[in-house]
Automatic annotation (TrEMBL):
Name of the protein in question: Niban 1/2/3 domain-containing protein
Domain Niban 1/2/3: 335-506
PANTHER family: NIBAN FAMILY MEMBER, PROTEIN NIBAN 3
Pfam families the UniProt entry points to: Niban2 (PF26086), PH_Niban2 (PF26089)
Highest taxon of source: Eukaryota
Amino acid sequence: MGGRPSSPLDKRRQQHLRGQVDTMLRDLLPCYREQLAASVLRQISRELGPQEPAGCQLMRSKKLPRVREHQGPLTQLWGHPPRWQPIFCVLRGDGRLELFSHREEYENGGHPLSSVALTGYTVLTSQREYLCLLDALCPIPSGEHTQEEPEPLLEMPVNFPLFLQHPFRRHLCFSAATGEARRAWRLALQGGIRLRGTVLQRSQAPAARAFLDALRLYRQRRGHFGEDDVTLGSDAEVLTGVLMRELLPALRAQTLPGLRGASRNRAWAWTELLDAVHAAVLAGASAGLRAFQPEKDELLAALEKTIRPDVDQILQLRARVARRLRVEVEGPLESCLRGRVDTQLSRVTQKLLSTVGAVLSTVQTLLAQGMDRLSRHLRGSPSSTRLRQEVYSFGEMPWDSELMHACYREAERSQKRLGQLVAPFGFFGTRSLVFGAQDLAQQLMADAVATFLQLADQCLTTALDCTQAAQQLEKVRGRVLKKFQSDSSSARRRFIRGWSLCIFLPFVLSQLKSSCKVELPEFEGEVLAVGSPALTIEGIYEDIVRGVLLQRIDGDEETEAQRGTCPRQPGSGAEVQPLCSQPPPGTSTAASRPHLSSFPSDK
């Protein structure tokens, strides 16, 4: 389950997979080029257009998104035949899990036995649940009787199991020594999975937005209008996931009938084959995107030079075509919204509001708790060593998986109900949605912590005694909370708008496909006459639908807020009370901030 035997793919299969990847890239890259142009136009028009009246109040944290490195011994089920063996695991800050034969090998700088990118994995802690999953992977056909062979998972029940399951990769089966160790690993691994999964969603680069839009259009042209979690990961990982889903039915038909043995042995053999196919497809996708990179860089530079001088003319033409086209599509669009969307929009908006509201309220509470703890230590005349520990611990709050779990749990609680509400619209990306809320919580916490430490360093001097310093920190606390409330209110609105669009826009486009898209060719000549790759009639059409849908979403959100149907959000003026007086676990002794941490006591 952990080692890497020789690939079960023969040369013929490997060549076939390379052909599949090449075909997919040939179909995708023209759309990618179009979306790069559209993304550059969008960025330039945003720069030149009217700016929002209120920007971010908090300073932006300069720390890159990461997970806190975690390491320790585990027992892993691996080998042929599989058996439980001790292993030393290290979770890197970029979300890679490295496996070493023992601790000394890691400490001496040795190479890991394997390194696993955690993209797309799910953490399970129930042995029974995992065994049921294995049984469902390769059920024995009815009428076939197979002698069940002894299996390590059945012979040795695991007290503290930790399973990493992936739909297309080999599973990783671990066991921790204690429940506390398993919990720490579970939280750390979940953080690594989320970090690697949302790399494209977090990016502000035009190329990232262009890639996601191109992939959506690529799938829509093949009849797939719904949103799901396939966009989690890097560009190569996303393409691999899309192609693996396309290949899966044929792989099942060709492979499963030939597998023999007990059902779980069959399941392990199946996951090993999938792992080999996944690796081959990922290698091909990575190579194809690397080959496209120089062209992409040149194209982005050329688009910037050609679009910026003519941006006013391009936008004027776009607006003129959009006005005419909207007249044609307005009737069917309004009919679709009234009949299929409006009845459920308020319920979805309310659930999104309550979810993100609970997450941000918890962030604010933890932030206030951390600032209060620093003030208490100053008033208590602490030793400089202890104060340095507290300052460092405060600075690490956004990356403390145990502490931030209180925020992340609020997002997870809504996942099942949200899934039920949005499934009728073809949206199956609730994991991505939950990750988005958790990323938002971590980013706002990081910005607030960075802002507090900066303001504290500006106002604290060694001329102040501890009581005066604590009073200054109270003022800083108030300023930071006001800034946090402003930013969280804006972030909440962006979250509602963005995810409501992800839920409803593909559905509306699919409903209008037969009635509205037939009208597009008559407008295409006018767009092509401009000669700008940044304008396409399909893009203008989608922008019209998106704009009308956003008006509905904004109006519904405002109505729900006025009704008071969601919890009080940060910014509502509610008092924030610290959760408890205990410091968070994992306090480090490393020094950090020179002014605050070196402040003398009153002794």
